[in-house]
Write a structure and sequence with these properties.
The complex is a heterodimer of chains A (340) and B (252).
Chain A: H1 2-29, H2 37-44, H3 51-85, H4 98-117, H5 122-146, H6 150-174, H7 183-188, H8 196-215, H9 217-223, H10 227-232, H11 237-259, H12 265-277, H13 282-306, H14 315-336
Helix pairs in contact in A: 1-3, 1-13, 3-8, 3-11, 3-12, 3-13, 4-5, 4-6, 4-11, 5-6, 5-11, 8-11, 12-13, 12-14, 13-14
Chain B: E1 2-10, E2 13-22, E3 28-32, H1 39-46, E4 54-59, E5 62-63, H2 69-73, E6 76-79, H3 91-96, H4 111-123, H5 139-152, E7 157-161, H6 169-184, E8 188-192, H7 196-202, E9 205-209, E10 215-218, H8 220-225, H9 228-233, H10 237-251
Parallel strand pairs in B: 3-8, 3-9, 6-7, 7-8
Antiparallel strand pairs in B: 1-2, 1-4, 4-5, 9-10
Helix pairs in contact in B: 4-5, 7-10
Classes of the chains: A mainly alpha (340), B alpha/beta (252).
């Protein structure tokens, strides 16, 4: 058992690393304009290539692929944290309405602050999204205190999500400023138009958060049993839970601020990793979820832009298409195992 | 471990009043009394989960309320009545989690931790179930796994709330033997029991928790001599006569 677990881990982690490299390469090499892999390689390493191809690779495809890599991973880790917090494997930033809350605040910030001052910055958007995410999260926690039932909690989250989305739609409909011309496509979730500046912010925010999450793996490990038992093995339960909420909010806020809400990665990926690795040990699952989230997001973005090229789908259309069936399977599995 | 005039309860409500006892190292203390009398409440206060409403609790020489969760974890381990639903954890994973207070920053275990976990599983006879998923264990096996987890934490004080729940008679008797062995190796055991006869048989002293919240500390012999069980549980004469013989037998 111990041995098979170890081998399983090595195989899965190797596969994840290879897949993420592969997905990343494909995302940079495939596009509406034909550029051969050799040329792409040349451009990335600063050799040769005409100006047009170079611009396409360096300013469009590379930042987009980097962003899909880092945000996909961040989203999966954010979902993992929420699942631990609510001890419910179907929890995630999108389904609990947290992404929508963040989206609403970003829309508000774009219209009222950016619209009136004409200045925008990545930091401002992330901050707005973070405030939205935190407010929604605490609202959901409040509901979870009143009703213990997990199904009710999810229903409440979905409703909160609808309300926030509705408000966002109103805002978009009534705002006719040219500054927010992209707001519509962004509010549906899309990686188009990502520049290197945003990528830098994304890497720093997600990178720091994921490292902090890794440092939390011991409290997360202990919390798998229950709060009482976690306390009895010396965990500061209150502080750990607060840290879990703040980090998951930062991660989902960062994603929402840059590319809009993305569905299902937060739920489906940690679930798949748990099943594949046959463990719920955080120190294993956090990096696995991150990598798998990256792979999932990279392939989804590739499909979103290539399936009906040159028309681009919003990314949630693709992640839902693959993610939702996984979640349905998961609910049926849990039900047949007779767990509430 | 020492309790001085401890009052315990939730919110405004005080459930147990003025509990005082000086517990020696390696002593076995059983809490008995009617349902809802406050045994669990008192145990939660003793293990630091619940703040106390009055008095003082000392763990060794130090005031329990001044200790951090980490410091308490290295001295005291618990078995609660709460039902846990961990996902994808084996019996061994659960037992190993008792080593968390001694593990490294990321919750990684060393070889010594593995050995202690294995011994604890053997003690509670769950070593053959090590790789079985916790969810698929029977209720009795789950209970034994949780007790093995508490033993695995190498505590100086073991606090258990109804540890015999879900167990059949053989495992109950075996648990009493385990408790005796732990006490012999200087572990203090404080537990609540529904089975008065087991409590009379194993305990050095009994902590009688009455319905109205007052608490008495007596030896098993005193309890039997003064027929204290009758008043504690509010039994009528006919009821008590039925069980008196059994109780006397067990308390020897």
């Amino acid at each position: 058992m111990e041995e098979t677990r170890k081998i399983r881990r090595i195989v899965i982690f190797t596969a994840l690393v290879i897949l993420s490299l592969l997905a990343f390469t494909l995302n940079v090499c495939i596009g509406n304009v034909d550029i051969s892999p050799a040329q792409v390689l040349g451009i990335v390493f600063g050799r040769s290539g005409d100006l047009a191809s170079s611009t396409i690779v360096m300013d469009i495809r590379l930042p987009r692929a980097l962003m899909a890599f880092v945000l996909g991973g961040g989203l999966a880790v954010s979902g993992f944290l929420l699942q631990t917090y609510f001890s419910n494997p179907i929890a995630g930033p999108y389904i609990l309405g947290i992404s929508s809350g963040a989206k609403m605040m970003v829309a508000l910030a774009l219209i009222f602050i950016v619209g009136s001052t004409g200045r925008s910055s990545s930091l401002l958007l992330v901050l707005a999204a973070f405030i939205g995410a935190i407010i929604t999260t605490f609202f959901i926690i409040l509901i979870s205190r009143v009703v213990q039932n997990m199904a009710v909690l999810l229903a409440a989250g979905i409703m909160v999500g609808y309300i926030c989305s509705a408000v966002t739609d109103f805002l978009i409909a009534f705002a006719d400023d040219s500054d927010i011309v992209n707001l519509h496509s962004w509010s549906q979730g899309s990686f188009s138009g990502i520049d290197m500046g945003s990528v830098r912010y994304g890497f720093v925010i997600v990178g720091v958060s994921v490292i902090l999450v890794m440092l939390l793996s011991k409290p997360l490990d202990a919390l798998r049993l229950s709060e009482t038992y976690a306390r009895s093995v010396g965990i500061n339960v209150k502080a750990s839970r607060m840290a879990v909420i703040l980090l998951s909010s930062v991660l989902s806020a960062c994603v929402t601020a840059f590319v809009g809400p993305i569905s299902f990665i937060g739920i489906a990926v940690p679930f798949l990793m748990r099943e594949l690795l046959v463990t719920s040990k955080p120190i294993v699952l956090i990096p696995a979820s991150f990598l798998a989230g990256s792979v999932f997001c990279l392939f989804s973005d590739l499909l979103a832009r290539q399936m009906f090229a040159p028309t681009e789908l919003n990314i949630s259309a693709v992640t839902s298409l693959f993610g939702a069936p996984i979640v349905i399977y998961m609910i049926i599995r849990r039900h047949s195992r007779n767990e509430a | 471990m020492k309790l001085e005039k401890v009052s315990a309860g939730y919110g405004q409500r005080v459930v147990v009043r003025d509990a005082s006892i000086d517990i020696q190292k390696g002593e076995i203390i059983c809490l008995i009394g009617p349902n809802g009398g406050g045994k669990s409440t008192l145990l939660k206060s003793i293990n630091g989960t619940l703040g106390i409403k009055g008095g003082n609790i000392f763990l060794g020489k130090r005031d329990l309320s001044q200790l951090s969760a980490k410091e308490i974890a290295k001295e005291l381990s618990i078995v609660t009545t709460e039902r846990i639903r961990p996902q994808l954890m084996t019996c061994k994973d659960i037992v190993m989690s008792g080593r968390l207070p001694f593990s490294g920053g990321f919750g990684r275990y060393g070889r010594e931790d593995e050995e202690i976990a294995h011994r604890s599983m053997e003690t509670m006879k769950v070593d053959k179930l090590a790789d079985t998923s916790y969810e698929s264990l029977s209720d009795g096996q789950k209970q034994r796994t949780l007790i093995a987890r508490a033993i695995c934490q190498s505590p100086r004080v073991l606090v258990m709330d109804e540890p015999t729940s879900y167990m059949d008679i053989k495992h109950r008797l075996e648990l009493m033997e385990v408790v005796r062995q732990m006490a012999a190796s200087e572990v203090t055991v404080i537990m609540s029991l529904h089975e008065i006869e087991l409590a009379l048989g194993v305990a050095d002293r009994l902590l009688l928790v009455y319905d109205d919240g007052h608490v008495l500390v007596k030896t098993p012999a005193e309890v039997i001599e003064n027929s204290m069980i009758q008043e504690l549980y509010g039994l009528d004469d006919a009821m008590y006569q039925k069980i008196e013989g059994t109780l006397t037998l067990w308390s020897r």
